[in-house]
Amino acid sequence: MGELLRVTKTLAGYLKRPDLYPELGRKIIKNVFNRKSAFKGKEKTNLWASENAVSQTEAIEKLFGKKMEKFAEKFDKEYLEALRKQQNCPVKMGGAGALELIYEACEFTKAKNVIETGVAYGWSSFAALKSLEKRNGTLYSSDMPYLSQDGDKYVGFVVPEELKKNWKLFRHADRESLPKIFSICNEVDVVHYDSDKAYEGMSWAYPKLYSNLRKGGVFISDDINDNSAFQDFCEKNGLEPTIVDFEGKFIGVFVK
């Protein structure tokens, strides 16, 4: 019953938003005709990732030549306030990811322009913005509205108010948001992908994000274990990524 209510609320939310009809059409096709293809190559990539994975600490040292400092300790007061806000938030979304990896990627590249896909509470946004504020840089974020739980106003809820001046949030699916972002920012220093985890969605976004990533920039993708899109992309482009084992899932990272 709960699942039926969620689907009904989501559909009703889409129908109220004509600007989201293209994404509604894609979701219907994916869920009706291409459901299995979302996980294409999953077993192959999980084996590959598990054989090559390192810890976040090792990855930061290998990629950026730095000893990892815990984000929660480096920015303790802001982190604790963000954690308090998450705990009091009435809407439940995804928790914090590899914050140190994102922050150090921005530090390594001296980032002025960063793109992320997927926001939720805004933990990754928080990490990127803490680095970007030093250079008055900009974070461009793409995130779909949370149509099933009336959670729109809580997207980015943990991001400190003083950091939001450096943040531009686009509230559509990647296929609509990314072209808008690229029209005002055609070269970025760091990419963090954490949105559509279906094979087709990742395969569509990766080449576009990669082509707008400057040489020497850092590409990060969460949850590469869901299918083989990241592995296939790296092999096709001759890339040798670092695989990070993080809380039972795998993150893919490379420097362009």
Q: What can you tell me about this protein's structure?
A:
α4 (56-64) runs parallel beside α7 (99-109) and α7 runs parallel beside α8. The chain starts with a helix and ends with a strand. The mean pLDDT is 90. An eight-stranded mixed sheet has the order 1-7-8-6-5-2-3-4, sandwiched between helices. The protein has helices at 2-15, 21-32, 42-52, 56-64, 71-74, 76-88, 99-109, 123-132, 174-184, 199-211, 229-236, and strands at residues 53-54, 113-117, 138-142, 167-170, 188-193, 213-221, 242-246, 249-255. The longest helix has 14 residues, at 2-15. It has 256 residues and is an alpha/beta fold. The protein has eleven helices and eight strands. The chain has one domain: Rossmann fold, CATH 3.40.50.150. It is globular and about 50 Å long. The chain is 45% helix and 17% strand.
Mean pLDDT across the residues is 90
- The run of helices and strands is HHHEHHHHEHEEHEHEHEE
Which radius of gyration do the C-alpha atoms yield?
18 Å
CATH fold topology: Rossmann fold
Q: Write the CATH architecture name.
A: 3-Layer(aba) Sandwich
Instruction: Please give the largest β-sheet.
Output: 8 strands, mixed
- Counting structural domains, the number is 1
CATH class: Alpha Beta
Query: How many DSSP helices?
Result: 11
The oligomeric state is: single chain
